[in-house]
Amino acid sequence: MLRVTEDIALEDWELREIFLRASGPGGQNVNKVETAVQLRFDAARSPSLPEAVKARLIRLAGRRATRDGEIVIEARRFRTQERNREDARERLAALIERAASPPKPRKKTRVPKAERRRRVEDKRRRSEIKSGRATPRVDKDG
Fold it and tell me: Lowest-confidence range among 23-32, 105-114, 132-141?
């Protein structure tokens, strides 16, 4: 069982691990031993997650989420399969934890009157400066 928060825990049967050969560190074993881990979690169909958390999780996962709502995390940082398994599970737990806390609602704010006045005054000043750079027009009358 993977405990994420007090309310959320994933059962082992919900997680699927596939082991593959990893590039990177590994010494003599790099081409022989399958130390990389691909962790798959079907977030869309998980009974352990509330609907709101599922939606936020799939959105937060970005490229790591498939069209079917499955989260795929690859871990290949370490030389041992066990460390990579732990790494993948920790990263999934962190992602779910982020999705579990709802975003703060945005508070509408107004631009203060003095700020609007200042902005208009600055625009007027800038306009005067620029119009002062123009070449003077010659009157034909005089």
Answer: 23-32
pTM for this one? 0.65
The amino acid that residue 102 corresponds to is P
**What angle, rounded to 10 degrees, do the helices at 51-61 and 81-100 form?**
120
> In angstroms, how far is the first alpha carbon of the chain from the final one?
94
All domains in the chain, ordered by first residue: 2-100 (3.30.160.20)
DSSP line for 4-24: -SSS-EE-GGGEEEEEE--SS
Q: With residue 38 as reference, give the H or E element that holds it.
A: strand 36-42
Structure tokens at 41: 């979690």
Six-digit token string for 142: 């005089």
pLDDT at 27 (0 to 100): 64
